[in-house]
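ZP: hey, is the FE2/S2 (inorganic) cluster complex queued? I don't see it on the tracker
AM: it wasn't, my bad. submitting now with these inputs:
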Amino acid sequence: MTFSTTVNGDTQNLDLEGHEASVDVLREQLGLTGTKLVCAGGVCGACTIQIDGVPVAGCLTPATAMVDAEVTTIEGIADGEELHPIQKAFLAHDGLQCGYCTPGFIVHGVAFYDHWRAEHGPLAPRPTPDRHTIAEDLAGHLCRCGAYEGIYRAMAAACRGDFDDGPVEPSRIDGPAKVTGQAVYTADRYPENVLHAVIVRSPVAAADVGPLPPPSDGAPEWIVDLLPDDRRVRFAGQALFAVAAESPADARQLAAEVPVQLTPRPFVIDPDEALADDAPLVYEDRASRKLAPNSSEGPMLPTRWSGNRRGPTPTPFMGTLANYRVRKARETGAVGLVELTLETEPQLHSAFEPHCTVADWSDPAMLKVWTSSQAIDHIRHLLTERYGLGDHQIEVNADFVGGGFGAKSVLSPDLIGAIELSRLARRPVRLVLDRREELTATGNRPGTRTDISILVADDGDIQAMVVDAESHAGVAVNGVYGALCVIVYDRSPRIARDSDVLTNAPPGAPFRGPGGPTYAWALEQAVDQAAHQLGWDPIELRQRWDGNEKRQALYRWARELDVWSERPVTGSQTGRFRRGVGVAAANWLYMHDPTTEIEVGVEGGRLVVTNATQDIGTGSKTLLARAVGEVFDVAPTDVIVRAGRSAEGIPHGPTSGGSRVSPSLWPTAVEAAENLRDRIGTDLAAVPDGTSVSARRGGDGGNRLLRLTLGDLQVGQGFAAAVHVSEVEVDTLTGKTRVLTVHGGLAVGRVFAPVLATSQCEGSIIQGIGLALYENQILDPHTGLTLTSNLEDYRIPQLGDVPEITIHFHTGGWEHVAGGGIGLGEVGTISPAASVGNAIFNATGWRPTVAPVRPDRLLDGLR
Ligand code: FES
């Protein structure tokens, strides 16, 4: 039936059957795709709209509630060209990264603003809402990028009246599109004549799958196979087939009816049980092991297999001596021997825009793909090879990407499913995962178990380190992280032995600093324990062991912090609430893409910069605009940036992974811009259209101390460094830990875009807090099904969990690198969790060995 409503001031007729959710009707019938669908369960707030001025979750509110009502979506918040003060504040205070959660925050934030202003009067001076008030009101909103500090600042400033009048300088050039709902992500694309696709997934953790019957025997017309060559299921939720139909509901119905022939097999979920002699093997032979996905970004080096164990692979530096010293110390009960076993649970990426692809292969001579990816050039290369396409026959686009965090750089089932269905049907196909799929099958930071031994002499010198690192990446391998432990404190004999233990759990995938936070959880707590056992200041002990000059500068900064000098004596408190302060350090590789190319030209008197890289919320578009604008003394917002498209003739762009984007883009863009300026001068209005020059990144000159090139990734000289100091309050009655403040110090050289860099570092800390305290993928041990398959059960940090964060940049030490600075997306997320662990130890005297430190674990520990 047709009903009438008013949306953003316009009368609209809605065609309703009665069961639809508001968000679906707004997006699919009215094309108002600024309202995002993320959790579909009323948990995250991304789909917030106002009905008669009241913010509601569009996923839970039936579309019939919009009938005869005044509905406001993000597209209706601005008054024509004039942005609302809340929108301006989000732009100025960088209250966003990828922008996928932003419409929901703003639509709700406007209601909060109206309420605040009504309560406190329209005239200055007005009170500023405090963090607690803002957190309480916006409690139903989540941001996976962790842009919360910017959101706090924006909400406070807007309510105070800072943005009542006048224009605003946006922190990022794509910010205006994100705060107005105009940014079109892959999931927002509904092309004409589109088919809707869904993936049929395995309900069991291990099985053999028979062939599909032909359509005449019940199989759908549009169906493609997504199984590996051996047609075996290895985890519950694995993709089997993709089917397409005329509507999402029809596709879901079809998927439920696909006649799948499954022959279940024995499986194992628990890593300990997987090592038993009679455990079912996840990969039975050499051929099937080649199917195992890579859970890291590192190369898959050959190593031994024994049952479900792959490895151990040793990384020794005088390893025999290290083993000997530790064994001897154990036998003699040496006071300086620290031995701990530490574990982390799998952490889910949970990017707010799910994995999704729109593929159009209607024209057999041209494949067009839109995909939520952090590696569009790389994906285009892989697709070109897979389908034998010419350079002119394929383009891959990602105009806006709602987060990635490492899990969106491979040929995922949504990509292959959409492309192959489009080839079959010769129509555009849209395939968007739902949250359950996203939280089950798209990757995780693997769980780990680390046995670490550190031997320290009476004078505080480190004498040996032995690390046995076990990665639990489900059906994936190569979760190498133990090796990262033995490249930090380099002044003793040491050895790491890395193993994968295979189970029928969903595969791990690279996750922001792969192996980083998990190595630091073990190593940095062991160092803390050594300091405690031997009566050293934990920072001073690190200063003694650490050969990295940049980290030495950060240690000096950290020791000056009041919160550090005033920290309590470990275990000295007895009350219910106990305060503690902990420190942890981080080490990470410096990487860039030497094949990056950038073109800078002039069109209509404006600078145009072109590169195929994508912006997943880190700000790569803004970085390009800033680099070029700086050379010509032009505001970044006046530079046209063409990014997010990989096609013939478009200069190669780096993958958003390995912290490689900034050190690849910045110096290349500057060089191209300087070459252009040398050629045309600075009077852009006088330059004819089409004038352009290009530059290529290349290496860093003569520095060859450490140079390793893996495809388009070059590991450069030097290590990125960070130090985090966290302050916590532990409630010994409820077992809850609250992080009060975090000070993050990073040594990454020149910071190209300070506001965006600060936001990245704040988000890194917040994801680290998630790892330390909340995030835990849980599987049903009897079925292997993911139980934490929604954002209610899988708890990520929310506004009220966010401590006050300060970021300090040490800018020296990278003069040998082109541009003078390196990436920071990863090094900033390595040590926060360990610093929280050490702070809990300082508060309580109890060492939290398993992350997340859930209340039940803490209470058990204290008992
Ligand atoms: Fe909030 Fe990305 S900016 S989810």
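AM: back. The CA atoms of residues 481 and 832 lie 17 Å apart.
ZP: great, adding it to the tracker
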